[in-house]
């Protein structure tokens, strides 16, 4: 069974995990590691420590679907709308620039609900507080070290974290 690691539990990592699961017919061990305490990356929803019903999106607050992206990604919008994860944005936002053909969406359960949906769909084992520090090639396997715990080996690694974080990695990955 192939072992695949996706580093980063934001929108790119979660969607990558879901697409890998959907497109792969053979058995696959799929893991997602993130250095944070929860998924979302730059699309995080925070809850008040005093009232969990009180939330705030810390990254994107809405999503714009342009005619160009609608042609390429309509199935993703349709899926998220069908599951109630996205809803059309019907109220104006001060300062928002609307272009002809654009459609805006909000996530009533918080923008990170998109990420949580795709992680769930992927069936991946998701680990938080796994800060990758080094990646080395050992006997045709990628050995991944993190700040704590022993290194683990994978057949394939997908890095989805921001480029500045990728550039901080040590090991064979730099070559």
UniProtKB/TrEMBL annotation:
Gene3D superfamilies in UniProt: FAD/NAD(P)-binding domain (3.50.50.60)
**Keyword set for this entry?**
FAD, Flavoprotein
Domain Amine oxidase, which positions? 105-166
List the PANTHER family hit by this protein, alphabetically.
RENALASE (PTHR23357)
The UniProt record lists the keyword Flavoprotein: yes
Q: What is this protein called?
A: Amine oxidase domain-containing protein
Task: Show the GO cellular component annotation of the record.
Answer: extracellular region
């Amino acid at each position: 069974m192939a072992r695949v690691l996706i580093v980063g539990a934001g929108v790119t990592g979660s969607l990558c995990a879901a697409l890998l699961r959907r497109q792969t017919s053979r058995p696959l061990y799929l893991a997602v590691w993130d250095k944070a305490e929860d998924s979302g990356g730059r699309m995080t929803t925070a809850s008040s420590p005093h009232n969990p019903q009180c939330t705030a999106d810390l990254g994107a607050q809405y999503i714009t679907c342009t005619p160009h992206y609608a042609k390429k990604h309509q199935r993703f919008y349709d899926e998220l709308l069908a599951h109630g994860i996205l809803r059309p944005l019907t109220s104006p936002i001060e300062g928002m620039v609307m272009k002809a053909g654009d459609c805006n969406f909000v996530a009533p359960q918080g923008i990170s609900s998109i990420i949580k949906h795709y992680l769930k769909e992927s069936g991946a084992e998701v680990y938080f507080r796994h800060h990758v520090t080094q990646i080395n090639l050992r006997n045709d396997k990628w050995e991944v070290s993190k700040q704590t715990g022993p290194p683990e080996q994978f057949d394939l690694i997908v890095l989805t974290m921001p480029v500045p974080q990728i550039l901080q990695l040590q090991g064979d990955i730099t070559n």
